[in-house]
Amino acid sequence: xxxxxxxxxxxxxxxxxxxxxxxxxxxxxxxxxxxxxxxxxxxxxxxxxxxxxxxxxxxxxxxxxxxxxxxxxxxxxxxxxxxxxxxxxxxxxxxxxxxxxxxxxxxxxxxxxxxxxxxxxxxxxxxxxxxxxxxxxxxxxxxxxxxxxxxxxxxxxxxxxxxxxxxxxxxxxxxxxxxxxxxxxxxxxxxxxxxxxxxxxxxxxxxxxxxxxxxxxxxxxxxxxxxxxxxxxxxxxxxxxxxxxxxxxxxxxxxxxxxxxxxxxxxxxxxxxxxxxxxxxxxxxxxxxxxxxxxxxxxxxxxxxx
Amino acid sequence: xxxxxxxxxxxxxxxxxxxxxxxxxxxxxxxxxxxxxxxxxxxxxxxxxxxxxxxxxxxxxxxxxxxxxxxxxxxxxxxxxxxxxxxxxxxxxxxxxxxxxxxxxxxxxxxxxxxxxxxxxxxxxxxxxxxxxxxxxxxxxxxxxxxxxxxxxxxxxxxxxxxxxxxxxxxxxxxxxxxxxxxxxxxxxxxxxxxxxxxxxxxxxxxxxxxxxxxxxxxxxxxxxxxxxxxxxxxxxxxxxxxxxxxxxxxxxxxxxxxxxxxxxxxxxxxxxxxxxxxxxxxxxxxxxxxxxxxxxxxxxxxxxxxxxxxxxxxxxxxxxxxxx
Amino acid sequence: xxxxxxxxxxxxxxxxxxxxxxxxxxxxxxxxxxxxxxxxxxxxxxxxxxxxxxxxxxxxxxxxxxxxxxxxxxxxxxxxxxxxxxxxxxxxxxxxxxxxxxxxxxxxxxxxxxxxxxxxxxxxxxxxxxxxxxxxxxxxxxxxxxxxxxxxxxxxxxxxxxxxxxxxxxxxxxxxxxxxxxxxxxxxxxxxxxxxxxxxxxxxxxxxxxxxxxxxxxxxxxxxxxxxxxxxxxxxxxxxxxxxxxxxxxxxxxxxxxxxxxxxxxxxxxxxxxxxxxxxxxxxxxxxxxxxxxxxxxxxxxxxxxxxxxxxxxxxxxxxxx
Lengths: 306, 325, 322
Fold this sequence. Notes:
The complex is a heterotrimer.
Chain A: H1 2-10, H2 12-28, H3 30-47, H4 51-55, H5 90-126, H6 128-142, H7 146-157, H8 162-172, H9 175-189, H10 192-199, H11 204-240, H12 251-260, H13 268-296
Helix pairs in contact in A: 1-2, 1-11, 3-5, 3-13, 5-6, 5-8, 5-9, 5-11, 5-13, 6-9, 7-11, 9-11, 10-11, 11-12, 11-13, 12-13
Chain B: H1 2-31, H2 36-40, H3 47-57, H4 63-75, H5 89-123, H6 129-143, H7 146-160, H8 172-175, H9 182-219, H10 223-230, H11 235-257, H12 259-272, H13 278-287, H14 291-319
Chain C: E1 5-16, E2 19-31, E3 36-40, H1 47-55, E4 62-71, E5 74-75, H2 81-87, E6 92-95, H3 109-120, H4 126-140, H5 156-168, E7 174-178, H6 186-203, E8 206-211, H7 214-220, E9 223-228, E10 231-237, H8 238-243, H9 248-259, H10 294-298, E11 303-305, E12 311-313, H11 316-320
Parallel strand pairs in C: 3-8, 3-9, 6-7, 7-8
Antiparallel strand pairs in C: 1-2, 1-4, 4-5, 9-10, 10-12, 11-12
């Protein structure tokens, strides 16, 4: 952590440099590289999701119904991965699902990490009763199974939109992050450069944002990557149970259709792709996170990964 | 005796947390759009039934009084009447809870034992091909999407092979036979349990293995491992008596931390396999707007997670003599 | 007469990301039964590496390049793993620094010692092994009832005593004591050193004491070797080293110690510590030496005997040695 301390005095350019260095090491790490390659493939899928509906309205993932087909069919030239129970194209749905997964995963993870970092810095820096209250709150939220909490919300407030789901995931997935960040802040607080900043007359806000924040940023990035996987899984599970946003096509929803319409045993071409995609996408984020973990600081491993 | 005091303190903490969860839920039920009354009273009830129930739950009182009724009723085990079953929620939960505990704890304990055992073994052969293959396998297991793997299990085990039942926990045709013996019934349950348990096992096994492996690798750099080597202890003694017991500690912590997350998986597994547990009941209740049942199931799951956390903490203290309560 | 332990021309290298370094460079010394040799030097001088090399427990990135470690007539560097394992603790044991995490935190201290006995002497019944540990505890001054306690329940001094008891558990011939009193306060340090001296006399053990503090070695050892940048630069009896130090580094160590003898923390020798990645030409110490001449920068110094027991690796000794 020597380099981050120097970063304090020379500010931005140095930690950018450190970031570049870590990025290079990440690409050299076999786990990290496989994760990145997989992610690139999924990103291409997500990016090309708008193409099929342009080719023909029958490829619209949600409303596109092939006029000649009103039931599920296997893979064909016309429908590469076949069609679902009302004749919609599975391949276009799969591409659209990639976009939803990225959207949900990254925004939910980003929001929960922002929340977690803010609360972690505040609790660690303020100490005293603020710390106690915030950490108790974190403990409390930590024991709540997020999926079931969102289910309860669905019971009370009816159909949830995709953004409500994202917000709820963020709201219930910050405590793990804030605990790690807080622990880090507690040790950073002992370092001379914080004392120096205080003597130099820096305000609390300035110390928190300019001095402490840059030091926990790599850690925050790491936890964000871990959180992406859990956010994707929660959204997919929710959609699978039938509580997803009905206006979007997500992989979890595709699985729900297979399951609910009783095609689980008859249509492997329909059952396999969405499951493989969810599993592989979470795997690639997870591999990326593990590689980052190894690179950043082996001693920080494992704490609050869930 | 200090352990007793610790447990009492933790129980008090748990009670407070639980009370907060209850309170939040109660007010959410009241703030949510729509008529709060309709959430506790089944529209299909007769007038007398409705009167008795509103009386019992204090539904005509002001919100503050209702809240007190709500808390009091909870401790008397009155969660209201399920819309769907038309029976008290408490009785439904009492029926479902043992099934969940049977499936979930067996799977978690088995996978924790197997995962830490294998994690311990492969950490000793780091940088070896077996280690790499198993680590990648564990990574894949850990990130598999649970409902999907559950469906694959069904497709393969119940449909392709036809070895296991498709859904449920028992074969009713066996249980109605008067001559069915207890061992036969137990075997029947075990037979139904194999696929859902295999699903939960697979998911948890991977993560326990990964945690144990990295914890072992970290422990191996400790000074006391060097001491053990210097003492001329055989390698397997160093591994089993010195490295593994220390490496197990972080695993126990992470079991506690990830418990809430595992519960999600439990609910999904129960749903796919129609295992009559509390998680499936919650999903079912939410799908059918059976509010009293959903509320009861949720509160109970929260209580179970809190209690399980306490068990994990006590277990940790038992494994690590440095912890003093 | 054959020595109990003889290190001959030992060279150990480490492979680091920045390149290969020689942590121990052609070091030779002998240790007799019932005698003690102190190795002094600053961190990075290679003294600890010698200890781990003798036990055959070098780190993964370390390699013995040349030399021999002869114990009771056998070269340990040629022994197979199983032979070495049986020899460890039974014949050569080690006293670790108590400030380190040398004891398993979740195992009672007594059990950790009993375990060592039972591995090397399986014929000893459990009760007898326990009895032996209780006796050892008495000898190092720990009440036997503390056998069942865990390391965190001990004070620093007690942990150090327990580690000494552990080192004695199998009646070894040689004990390697690596910084046995570092991080303890002065009074405790004194008592521990006295215990070591007393036990050594009684059991006729050869002790190799490794320390950064020359006063510690002076208190315990018959012989003292001074190490600098991987090399042994001077070796002699305690009296010779203390009264007629020949190497400028030895002198600097002694002076540094005297200046701050009040709190017994040796002051560092002035100048930057040697960088093993960039060793200077000629004498490795010339950059910090007070009286270097032009030749020190160019010529590698060679050994000069000052007496039958005293030798030094310095050119200066040439000029005023006669």
